[in-house]
């Protein structure tokens, strides 16, 4: 018997089977189309997402020798917003992706109306186009007939977890979990309820919202692709919270950083929702068995997607993995800095209008410099976040657990450790997001006993320790700060 994790990410859908030892038995992955209808807008077709999920599940099952699946855990790109017709099951508009900036003006209006404090106190977030609320508002305003349909109770809203569970249960369950709800900017993370006052300020009818459930329980059953057999869907968490769980960061003060499309650092703060003074988000880490735990989060919008830009946009890399060799081919960055603010800047700046910039070019600048500077930028942004996190939590980080595609890059990991001045630890199982979702589903169904069992299983594969002299990292980081400052002047 295996646990099946579905990891529905920003650029691809994956299905991963885990065995009782928490090892990966098999992975199937499928990319799907990204839509960029206007500069700064990013959208997905929710039916294409559903098809991609069906196809990776089918592929995975065809490769497994033991077909039996004990339970399914779902983890997903967070905030991405979808509205669909309750009766036909058809989306009324594309899913608006978390990165999309098409709702900046709605957010500006809400800020001007003075809603920022209420949002901060109740949801732990700040008003930004990143979160779901303004995306829902945009669809209700811009899709003809949507507002009336929503008011008549004919529309359903969901983040991608909700959409998948609804599809998998053939419309029986319209649910989400605490972690995904906490990213909508509509959910009170202290009372654990949809916030009626915010809903009314934003003009969003409560009838479209899913029921919010814990991260580890049976939400419904699916037979889709399982030959008629009913398999319980028993775990849901947003991908960053799932990674925190998969990294076994169960104690307050433990943190992980995931290098995916973006880069997200979460620190477990236990039962306390710590409010940030430095541009971090307060968010729900998970709610399990009646207990809620919180996290501080730093959100970097562009990380892995900057390497994709080198490959697909500038075409100076053939494969993303070539970036490691190119970066190592130089002795230093020679003063070149890339600020990859392609969709604005998240933590700690929260600046929607800044765009990407390159500084320090000379006649001697080669493509290797751009590659190295882009990798370094991921590490600098992480340092910005860690600084904010240590100030807010008062906790000195002992080490940073890392995961996601880019952690295979040894140059990046070593530079990250140099810059942060703490060990950076890469685990044996790098697929921690999917693993976290699998653990949540397995705990609900008795496949795994408890968190202790999970924590004991976590193992480091490689630890990068700081090597660079502090004077040098200080100088490099100052250069980054100057570059960001300069990029922000150009709007
Ligand atoms: O908040 C957005 C995040 O959930 C997306 O994650 O892995 O697709 O970069 P990822």
Automatic annotation (TrEMBL):
PROSITE patterns assigned: FGGY_KINASES_1, FGGY_KINASES_2
Pathway this chain belongs to: Polyol metabolism; glycerol degradation via glycerol kinase pathway; sn-glycerol 3-phosphate from glycerol: step 1/1
Molecular function per GO: ATP binding; glycerol kinase activity
EC number: 2.7.1.30
InterPro entries: ATPase_NBD, Carb_kinase_FGGY, Carb_kinase_FGGY_CS, FGGY_C, FGGY_N, Glycerol_kin
EC supergroup of this enzyme: transferase
Activation/inhibition comment: Inhibited by fructose 1,6-bisphosphate (FBP).
Alphabetically ordered keywords of this record: ATP-binding, Glycerol metabolism, Kinase, Nucleotide-binding, Transferase
Binding site for ADP: 10, 14, 261, 304, 405, 409
SUPFAM superfamilies reported for this sequence: Actin-like ATPase domain (SSF53067)
Every Carbohydrate kinase FGGY N-terminal domain range: 2-246
Carbohydrate kinase FGGY C-terminal domain boundaries: 256-444
UniProt keyword Kinase, yes or no: yes
Residues that bind ATP: 10-12, 261, 304, 308, 405
Catalytic activity, reaction form: glycerol + ATP = sn-glycerol 3-phosphate + ADP + H(+)
Residues annotated to bind glycerol: 78-79, 130, 239-240
Binding site for sn-glycerol 3-phosphate: 10, 78-79, 130, 239
Keyword Transferase among record annotations: yes
Short name of one Pfam family: FGGY_N
GO BP terms, alphabetized: glycerol catabolic process; glycerol-3-phosphate metabolic process
Functional summary from the UniProt entry: Key enzyme in the regulation of glycerol uptake and metabolism. Catalyzes the phosphorylation of glycerol to yield sn-glycerol 3-phosphate.
Name of the protein in question: Glycerol kinase
Gene that this polypeptide is encoded by: glpK
């Amino acid at each position: 018997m295996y646990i099946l994790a579905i990891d529905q990410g920003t650029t691809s859908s994956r299905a991963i089977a885990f065995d009782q030892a928490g090892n990966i038995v098999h992975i199937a992955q499928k990319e799907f189309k990204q839509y960029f209808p206007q500069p700064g807008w990013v959208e997905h077709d929710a039916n294409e997402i559903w098809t991609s999920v069906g196809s990776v599940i089918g592929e995975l099952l065809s490769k497994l020798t033991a077909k039996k699946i004990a339970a399914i855990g779902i983890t997903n790109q967070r905030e991405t917003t979808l509205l669909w017709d309750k009766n036909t099951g058809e989306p009324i508009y594309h899913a608006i992706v978390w990165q999309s900036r098409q709702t900046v003006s709605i957010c500006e209006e809400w800020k001007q109306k003075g809603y920022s404090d209420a949002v901060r106190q109740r949801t732990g977030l700040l008003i930004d186009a990143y979160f779901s609320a303004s995306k829902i508002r945009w669809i209700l305003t811009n899709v003809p007939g949507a507002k009336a349909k929503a008011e008549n109770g004919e529309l359903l809203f969901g983040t991608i977890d909700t959409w998948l569970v609804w599809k998998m249960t053939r419309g029986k369950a319209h649910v989400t979990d605490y972690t995904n709800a906490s990213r909508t900017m509509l959910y009170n993370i202290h009372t654990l309820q949809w916030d009626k006052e915010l809903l009314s300020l934003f003009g969003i009818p409560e009838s479209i919202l899913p029921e919010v459930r814990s991260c580890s329980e049976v939400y419904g059953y699916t037979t889709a692709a399982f030959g008629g057999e009913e398999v319980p869907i028993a775990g849901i968490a947003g991908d960053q919270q799932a990674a925190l769980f998969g990294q076994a960061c169960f104690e307050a003060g433990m943190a992980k950083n995931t290098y995916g499309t973006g880069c997200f650092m979460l620190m477990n703060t236990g039962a306390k929702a710590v409010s940030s003074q430095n541009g971090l988000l307060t968010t729900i880490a998970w709610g399990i068995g009646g207990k809620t735990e919180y996290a501080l989060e730093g959100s970097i919008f562009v990380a892995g997607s900057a390497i994709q830009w080198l490959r697909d946009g500038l075409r100076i890399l053939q494969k993303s993995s070539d970036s490691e060799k190119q970066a190592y081919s130089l002795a230093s960055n020679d003063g070149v800095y890339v600020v990859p603010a392609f969709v604005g800047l998240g933590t700690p700046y929260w600046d929607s209008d800044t765009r990407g910039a390159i500084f320090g070019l000379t006649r001697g600048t080669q493509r290797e410099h751009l590659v190295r500077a882009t990798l370094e930028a991921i590490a600098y942004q992480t340092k910005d976040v860690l600084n904010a996190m240590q100030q807010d939590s008062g906790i000195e980080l002992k080490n940073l657990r890392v995961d996601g595609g880019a952690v295979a890059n040894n140059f990046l990991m070593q530079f990250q450790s140099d810059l942060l001045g703490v060990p950076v630890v890469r685990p044996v199982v790098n697929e921690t997001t999917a693993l976290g979702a699998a653990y949540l589903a397995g705990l609900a169904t008795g496949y795994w006993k408890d968190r202790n069992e999970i924590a004991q299983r976590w193992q480091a594969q490689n630890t990068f320790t700081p090597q660079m002299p502090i004077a040098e990292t200080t100088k490099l980081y100052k250069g980054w700060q100057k570059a960001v400052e300069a990029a922000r002047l150009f709007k």
